[in-house]
Write a structure and sequence with these properties.
The protein has helices at residues 26-32, 35-43, 70-90, 92-97, 99-112, 121-138, 144-150, 153-175, 184-195, 200-210, 214-238, 265-289, 295-309, 311-314, 318-339, 342-373, 378-389, 392-402, 408-432. The protein is an all-alpha fold. Helix 5 (99-112) packs parallel to helix 15, helix 6 crosses helix 12 and helix 10 packs parallel to helix 19.
Length: 437
């Protein structure tokens, strides 16, 4: 295994039919009433918080922060996002679980305990505006020509890993069809397919496009994080006896990343404005074509095209863009948690866990087995698999930790390539294959 905010949009009503707003016309409501709204409506099945009932005096209304309290809800969402990021950087538990999962769990706890509502206008702002905004910010480095030119044999190993993920999905779906999830079973399988080719942003994009219910989305994220922890442990065990390379400089060929904590103001402002423009174009195209739930794939296609056609201009925005995207994705994960239900997550997680376990196991066996038959080096296969399942950051991290300096930049580029294509592969594979199995 992500999205300043438009302040006028903070007050868009969740249901314009019941809460009319002059800034939200009927035509605009029809355009924005997409899969994200459906996720929210499924989430609000009159779930009432109960954990604080005994701790509070009689007559105290729950949730403590009403859905109409915009300042209160945004405070909780941003604080939860910040705590998730902090935990991943500073605590062992956070590093083991990942900041995304910590934020989801905190959101679940806040909603279940009665601190915030399971349904609020702020959540719609996140789904309709901040989530799409995160996609271009993450993909400013997705220059496909550079990927093809610089990754060499690692790209072939990465594509082998993508095929292995696809085959693993089919095997897992046959063995663990997750029928208890109803119509969400093939949808979450498709989302996890994209997750294990690209990254968390692809998982989110496919889930939104296919209208996965919030509780299943949260359960899938929780199960996948546990599986990934086991996977990375296995991966490093397989790499234990492979020696480091002779140290060499990687010069200026490494893509720019947002490794620091300081953001340049001009680049940040430019990155946001370009991202808003891309989102506007993507929304307009999907509305024009009448494609329901297709805004995120369309936005992805636009930003990848621009990054490939104008790499020197778009690529300069990447450091600021990636840092801003991390914040926005964390806010989204807070909404995923607040929309979810702990009981539903607990009930649905075991099936998804078993599915993801089989999927990743088959992936690893196939890429290592077939890769050796095709003559690939073990370290190349391990980094390619890491780029599939973990993404560019973990692939680069493993290459750095193991001292495989020649694979650092190719690992990043292969991971970026996966993020660029995984949304389309996941949706297509789900609609044309998994749905009919």
């Amino acid at each position: 295994m992500a999205t300043a905010t438009p302040t006028q949009a903070f007050f868009f009503p969740l249901n314009s039919a019941r809460h009319p707003s002059p800034s939200h016309s009927a035509a605009g409501a029809r355009r924005t009433c997409n899969a994200s709204t459906t996720l929210l409506r499924h989430a609000s099945r009159r779930r009432r918080p109960t954990l604080l009932l005994r701790a509070l005096p009689h007559g105290v209304p729950l949730p403590l922060i009403a859905a109409s309290d915009h300042w209160g809800n945004w405070t909780v969402l941003l604080a939860t996002a910040a705590l998730g990021i902090w935990s991943e950087k500073n605590t062992r538990a956070g590093k083991a679980l990942s900041g995304a999962l910590v934020t989801v769990l905190l959101g679940l706890a806040a909603s279940t305990a009665g601190l915030v509502a399971a349904d609020a206008p702020a959540y719609r702002v996140v789904l309709d505006y901040l989530l799409p905004l995160a996609v271009p910010l993450l993909l400013f480095t997705a220059d496909l020509r550079r990927v093809l030119r610089s990754t060499g044999s690692l790209l072939l190993a990465f594509l082998l890993g993508s095929v292995a993920t696809t085959i693993g999905t089919v095997v897992a779906f046959l063995l663990v069809p997750m029928r208890s999830l109803g119509n969400d079973n093939w949808k979450i399988a498709a989302a996890l397919t994209s997750r294990h080719i690209g990254g968390a942003v692809n998982y989110v994009a496919v889930s939104e496009a296919l209208q996965v219910s919030p509780s299943v989305l949260a359960a899938g994220l929780a199960a996948d994080n546990v599986i990934c922890a086991l996977y990375f442990t296995t991966l490093f065990a397989l790499a234990a006896k492979i020696p480091a390379e002779t140290m060499q400089s990687i010069g200026d060929s490494e893509p720019a990343t947002a490794g620091g904590d300081k953001l340049p103001v001009l680049q940040s402002a430019t990155a946001l404005s370009v991202s808003f423009a891309i989102c506007k174009a993507g929304k307009y195209i999907t509305s024009l074509l009448g494609i329901q739930g297709g805004s995120l794939p369309c936005i992805t296609a636009i930003v990848v095209s621009l990054a490939t056609l104008f790499p020197s201009h778009i690529g300069k925005l990447a450091p600021s863009g990636e840092a801003l995207a991390v914040i926005l994705m964390q806010v989204f994960f807070a909404v995923v948690g607040a929309n979810g239900s702990i009981s539903n997550v607990i009930n649905t997680t075991p099936g998804i866990f078993a599915f993801a376990f089989v999927q990743i196991t088959v992936h690893l066996l196939l890429i290592m087995g077939a890769g050796k038959l095709l003559g690939f080096e073990d370290k190349l296969l391990l980094i390619a698999s890491n780029a599939n399942v973990g993404g560019p950051t973990t692939a680069c991290g493993m290459a750095t930790t193991k001292g495989w300096t020649s694979l650092m930049v190719p690992g990043i580029l292969a991971g970026i390539f996966g993020i660029a294509i995984a949304t389309f592969l996941g949706i297509a594979f789900g609609v044309f294959v998994l749905q009919h199995m």
